[in-house]
């Protein structure tokens, strides 16, 4: 069907699509839960917030799970090196995510207020912690991670969890937390009314401002002082490659090289800014649709900004540049990539179709009255 | 070399997380179909009681499902976190069914489950019924894909080792899909899930019948569970997993260990009903045998032989020696000596490369292994016989007890006299743990029986781990056990609370506790 080189590129795009799909869908439910204890003052308001995402969070979360599965299948080396290296960060994300399925389903099963408050904070953790840590992980990609590969392709990681907390990475964490919270705030504006809606507007505005500052700051920092990697010419991108056989140069222009080679890619960071400004405007003018569109664009822009800067690298090493994993050498065989592409071409449109159907079926503003009338049927 | 404690701790962590996960999965598989059946009856008859059944059993389904999702998250990512070399070595094949599972099954199941719970007022009856069926189909499809992945670990077909990339690569997707081991595993496992769902509904309905509460509701639930359970139990027993045990060295070894068959016996072999396997002495103490039965169970024939453990060890020793040659050639190839002759020689013996890797436990360079190492590695190819022998018997005994239960329950349903048989109702209530005992011991047989391999004949467990410290894995293991146990306690609390409350928890005003409340209010 496609040659190996094209397939490798297609899978870079597809992994990006899965990540964006995850951030657009699961992003708003995580963001909404990160805001929930603050924008929802009463139990009823919190139930309204939770029930706007009740029918959708599980389907949304599958974007994350499928991204994990696709990473395993298409970039097994990245799946192996990243998750074992970032062991404690990954576990922290998982433990935070553990709180969600049980939190949603169990919270409102008992009337007890202490029980409900405890689950509210569990849901907050399940939203805020992964949102923060995904950004920290992305930030660390730019700094490189302390791993190397041996002759038999076994990776050893020489860092620790606390080593990940470099200020730049933390700033990247603020970018992603504020971005997803802005998205969640815009979602709550769309689906709620009264006080909860008003507080969600304030939260969306605040998160948009934080995002704009942090995104600009991280960009400036990257330009100013973070060295990037450059892949030497002459590697056979169309073949099966041993990652250790490549030549990698460490240079100052590294992470910006793609932007100067392909000026059109500058659209990505621009989209990040424009999107957040739109979200800010939407919240200001109380136009929830505009705000949600804006936060969605900001997400697409931000993820593309990172992807374009790093390309062709996907998991750079700070210890041994040659061990860095790229789209050319961390991938599965041509056969596997081809089969998975066919499966994706069939199922992704189907998934988008029925997901959309579910959203339209459940659409509408949730009010305090709906919740009060339904003490047992809803979350 | 990788420290033994990291390997053991990683194995323990996988076992704990997988076994926790499988407390919830079989109930999801079975209840999803029961819900779909109940709702179909509702749509066809229009009787409110069936809708109440879907809603009430659906509530319990939800409590269970939440923990299934929670514990499932770990499963998707821990190959990467804890089994990094495994992920690199076989990700090209093993990752594919996981990715497809996400796209084909998880999305379906998880997207529609929201509508199942919250869409009652927003969907037409038929639409909602379709949603429930899609949830059931989605959860079963996910079982299909994960068991294709697991079946490949037991019988790695359709793949070949590539020395350039130092990993296994997919050569035949069809073979992976139609792997006979995966096929029998799928049927056996989902049927076991249906049995779990049926026992669950049957036991709790029996409790209401014993308490003489909500009789119309309980009677109908009992009948549906009895019939569905009987069909499923027969399917589990007839389509037992061991029908896939003739294929490949590791499956054969598993079978010999299950039977504690030390010597190859003339066909059909006897079944050891009781015994205390003694691995050191390679014999079974106090054995009580039934002639012919095991040969028939294992090979579904009277003339095929089941190979004994001693012969298997000798056979594996030959493969280990071949594997040493393969490893030597691989080193040459990796160091750039890629002559035609080397490649040809390597291809000749590479099917035994995995056996050579077994020696890595004793010597990093493999080719210099001593005779003692080789002997020890050959003995390593046999899993713990005592565990295998007794896990299998616990599973089978639970299975047959459930068969008896469902035969009696189905008969009572046909005769419409279950309520008059308190002994049967008590038997049903006491049977509640049986499907879980069977499922857990069944997985012990399947996965402990795979030892010392993570991928049969290809990759030993002790090479599969991540480069973590024992402290890291110990820490995560303890944290997982603590958190999972806490969640399990909460889950059990809610489950018991709502099961006791019964359909009154729906707040329709039609059931036992509410009618009492109404009666009290009226009196007052």
From TrEMBL, chain B:
Family annotation (Pfam families): Cyt_bd_oxida_I
Residues passing through the membrane, by range: 20-44, 56-74, 94-118, 130-153, 186-210, 222-240, 390-411, 423-446, 473-496
InterPro entries: Cyt-d_ubiquinol_oxidase_su_1
Coiled-coil positions: none
Gene Ontology biological-process annotations: aerobic electron transport chain
Keywords: Cell inner membrane, Cell membrane, Electron transport, Heme, Iron, Membrane, Metal-binding, Transmembrane, Transmembrane helix, Transport
Topology of this chain in the membrane: Multi-pass membrane protein
Subcellular locations according to the entry: Cell inner membrane
MF annotations from Gene Ontology: electron transfer activity; heme binding; metal ion binding; oxidoreductase activity, acting on diphenols and related substances as donors, oxygen as acceptor
One Gene Ontology term, aspect cellular component: plasma membrane
Family indicated by similarity: Belongs to the cytochrome ubiquinol oxidase subunit 1 family.
Name assigned to this protein: Cytochrome bd-I ubiquinol oxidase subunit CydA
Lineage summary: Bacteria, Pseudomonadati, Pseudomonadota, Gammaproteobacteria, Pseudomonadales
């Amino acid at each position: 069907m496609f040659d190996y080189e094209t397939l490798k590129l297609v899978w870079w795009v597809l992994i990006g699509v899965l990540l964006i799909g995850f951030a657009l869908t699961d992003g708003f439910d995580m963001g909404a839960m990160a805001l929930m204890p603050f924008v929802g003052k009463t139990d009823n308001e919190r139930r309204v917030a939770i029930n706007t995402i009740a029918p959708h969070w599980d389907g949304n979360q599958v974007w994350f799970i499928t991204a994990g599965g696709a990473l395993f299948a298409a970039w097994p080396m990245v799946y192996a090196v990243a998750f074992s290296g970032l062991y404690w960060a990954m576990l922290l994300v998982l433990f935070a995510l553990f709180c969600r399925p049980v939190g949603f389903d169990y919270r409102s099963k008992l009337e007890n207020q202490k029980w409900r408050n405890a689950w509210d904070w569990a849901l907050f953790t399940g939203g805020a912690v992964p949102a923060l840590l995904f950004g920290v992980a992305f930030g660390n990609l730019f700094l490189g991670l302390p791993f190397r590969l041996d002759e038999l392709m076994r990776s050893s990681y020489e860092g620790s969890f606390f080593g990940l907390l470099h200020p730049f990475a933390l700033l990247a964490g603020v970018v992603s937390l504020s971005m997803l919270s802005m998205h969640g705030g815009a979602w709550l504006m769309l689906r709620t009314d009264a006080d909860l809606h008003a507080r969600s507007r304030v939260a969306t505005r605040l998160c948009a401002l934080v995002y704009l500052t942090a995104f600009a700051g991280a960009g400036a920092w990257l330009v100013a002082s973070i060295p990037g990697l450059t892949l030497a010419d002459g590697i056979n991108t169309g073949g099966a490659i041993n990652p250790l056989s490549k030549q990698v140069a460490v240079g100052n222009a590294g992470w910006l090289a793609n932007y100067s080679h392909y000026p059109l890619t500058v659209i990505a960071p621009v989209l990040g800014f424009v999107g957040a400004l739109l979200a800010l405007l939407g919240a200001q003018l109380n136009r929830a649709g505009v705000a949600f569109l804006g936060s969605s664009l900001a997400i697409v822009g931000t993820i593309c900004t990172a992807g374009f800067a790093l390309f062709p690298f996907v998991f750079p090493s700070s210890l041994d540049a040659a061990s860095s994993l790229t789209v050319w050498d961390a991938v599965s065989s041509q056969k596997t990539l081809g089969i998975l592409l066919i499966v994706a071409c069939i199922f992704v449109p189907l998934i988008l179709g029925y997901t959309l159907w579910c959203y339209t079926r459940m659409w509408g503003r949730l009010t305090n009255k709906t919740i009060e009338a339904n003490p047992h049927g809803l979350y | 070399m990788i420290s033994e404690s990291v390997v053991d701790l990683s194995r323990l962590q996988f076992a704990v997380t997988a076994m926790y996960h499988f407390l919830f999965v079989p109930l999801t598989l079975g209840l999803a179909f029961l819900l779909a059946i109940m709702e179909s009856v509702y749509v066809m008859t229009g009787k409110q009681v069936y809708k109440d059944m879907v809603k009430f059993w659906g509530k319990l389904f939800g409590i269970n499902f939440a923990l299934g999702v929670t514990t499932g998250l770990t499963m998707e990512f821990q190959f990467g976190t804890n089994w990094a070399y495994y992920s690199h070595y076989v990700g090209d094949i093993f990752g594919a069914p996981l990715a497809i599972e996400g796209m084909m099954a998880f999305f379906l199941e998880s997207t529609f489950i929201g509508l199942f719970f919250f869409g009652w007022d927003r969907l037409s009856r038929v639409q909602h019924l379709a949603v429930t069926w899609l949830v059931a189909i989605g959860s079963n499809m996910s079982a299909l894909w994960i068991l294709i992945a697991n079946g490949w670990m037991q019988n790695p077909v359709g793949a070949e080792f590539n020395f350039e990339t130092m990993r296994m690569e997919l050569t035949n997707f069809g073979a992976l899909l139609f792997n006979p081991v995966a096929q029998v595993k799928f049927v056996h496992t989902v049927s076991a899930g249906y049995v779990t769902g049926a026992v669950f509904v049957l036991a709790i309905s029996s409790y209401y019948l014993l308490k003489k509460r909500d009789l119309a509701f309980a009677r109908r639930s009992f009948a549906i569970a009895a019939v569905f359970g009987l069909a499923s139990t027969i399917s589990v027993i007839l389509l037992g997993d061991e029908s896939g045990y003739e294929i490949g060295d590791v499956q054969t070894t598993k079978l010999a260990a299950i039977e504690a068959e030390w010597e190859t016996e003339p066909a059909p072999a006897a079944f050891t009903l009781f015994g205390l396997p003694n691995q050191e002495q390679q014999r079974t103490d106090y054995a009580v045998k039934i002639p012919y039965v095991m040969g028939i169970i294992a090979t579904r024939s009277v003339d095929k032989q089941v190979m004994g453990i001693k012969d298997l060890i000798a056979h594996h020793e030959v493969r280990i020696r071949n594997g040493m040659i393969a490893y030597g050639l691989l080193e040459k190839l990796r160091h750039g000596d890629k002559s035609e002759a080397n490649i040809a020689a390597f291809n000749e013996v590479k099917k035994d490369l995995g056996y050579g890797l077994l020696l890595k436990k004793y010597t990093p360079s493999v080719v210099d292994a001593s005779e003692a190492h080789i002997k020890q590695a050959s003995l390593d190819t046999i899993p713990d016989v005592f565990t295998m022998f007794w896990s299998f018997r616990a599973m089978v005994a639970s299975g047959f007890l459930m068969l008896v239960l469902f035969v009696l329950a189905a008969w009572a349903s046909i005769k419409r006299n279950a309520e008059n048989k308190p002994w049967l109702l008590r038997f049903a209530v006491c049977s509640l743990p049986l499907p879980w005992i069977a499922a857990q011991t069944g997985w012990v047989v399947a996965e402990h029986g795979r030892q010392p391999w993570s991928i049969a004949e290809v990759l030993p467990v002790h090479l599969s781990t991540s480069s973590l410290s024992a402290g890291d894995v110990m820490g995560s293991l303890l944290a997982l056990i603590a958190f999972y146990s806490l969640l399990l306690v909460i889950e059990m609390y809610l489950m018991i609370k709502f099961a006791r409350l019964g359909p009154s928890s729906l707040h329709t005003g039609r059931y036992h506790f509410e009618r009492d409340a109404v009666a009290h209010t009226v009196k007052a």
